[in-house]
Amino acid sequence: MLAKSQQFELSPVYCGVTDMDLPSSTQDPKTIEDNSPVYVGREEDIKKSQRMTAVVHDREVVIFFHKGEYHAMDIRCYHSGGPLHLGEIEQRPCEVCTIILILQMRKSRLIEDFDGQACIVCPWHKYKITLSTGEGLYQSINPKDPSAVPKWCSKGVKQRTHTVTVKNGHIYVTLSKASDFKCDSDFYATGKFKVIQRPSTLKKVPDFKNI
Q1: What is the CATH number of the domain that holds 167?
Q2: Confidence class of residue 108 from pLDDT cuts 50, 70 and 90?
Q3: 113 pLDDT exceeds 90?
Q4: pTM of the model
Q5: Does residue 29 lie within any of the structural domains?
Q6: What would the pLDDT profile of 30-87 be if each residue is shown by its tens digit?
Q7: Which among 68, 42, 78, 10 has a CA at the least distance from the CA of 172?
Q8: Is residue 153 a part of any domain in this protein?
Q9: 3-state SS of the chain?
Q10: Is 117 domain-assigned?
Q11: Are 161 and 181 in contact (CB under 8 A)?
């Protein structure tokens, strides 16, 4: 768990509101396509907080703003359901540990980061996931080579990522199609693992098509 001083202030959560103007909360959600963009908040808010959470078509996601780029993925870690919105972002996964190990091997050079990709580190078990692709990372070393340097390798896509679109200062998230491929994080996207509560009423939001 993060110390109180390390905890993040998240922007207000927008839950279940679609890109259409909704005059009331009586619209049948079954009539809304799961791959339509959903308004999640204002660009100025996420730039201040660096992250926000939202419910998009009944799926919980976290949106990150890191080094000028937006990334969205399932909020629960694929490994054990850890809260990724409370994790830290690392450009060089566990670099300190790697440096210590290299120094013990009397090596003078540093390892390279994983293709320059930033990773979110799950606060529960320190699993590392690339923001851009959702790949799970692990360190590998040849035990038969005492001079070998640890290398970061990919487990493949483990965390489902989603598309973020910004129009006129408004942020929208479009879910990736679950039918296209199976992803480990899908397991924790089901109802019993949800942590975000829906509001009793839906807010009127900017129309994605008309702004």
Answers
A1: 2.102.10.10
A2: very low
A3: no
A4: 0.70
A5: no
A6: 444 577 999 999 999 999 999 999 999 989 999 999 989 999 999 999 999 999 999 9
A7: 42
A8: yes
A9: CCCHHHCCCCEEEEECCCCCCCCCCCCCHHHCCCCCCEEEEEHHHHHHHCEEEEEECCEEEEEEEECCEEEEEECECCCCCCEHHHCEEECCCCHHHHHHHHHHCCCCCCCCCCCCCCEEECCCCCCEEECCCCEEEEEECCCCCCCCCCEEEEEEECCCEEEEEEECCEEEEECCCCCCCCCHHHHHHCHHHCCCCCCCCCCCCCCCCCC
A10: yes
A11: no
Q: Is the pLDDT of residue 123 over 60?
A: yes
Number of domains comprising the chain: 1
Which of 133, 92, 136, 139 lies closest to 113 in space, CA to CA? 92
Domain around 145:
38-190
Q: Looking at residue 208, what is its pLDDT?
A: 64
Asked, for residue 124, whether it belongs to a domain, the answer is yes
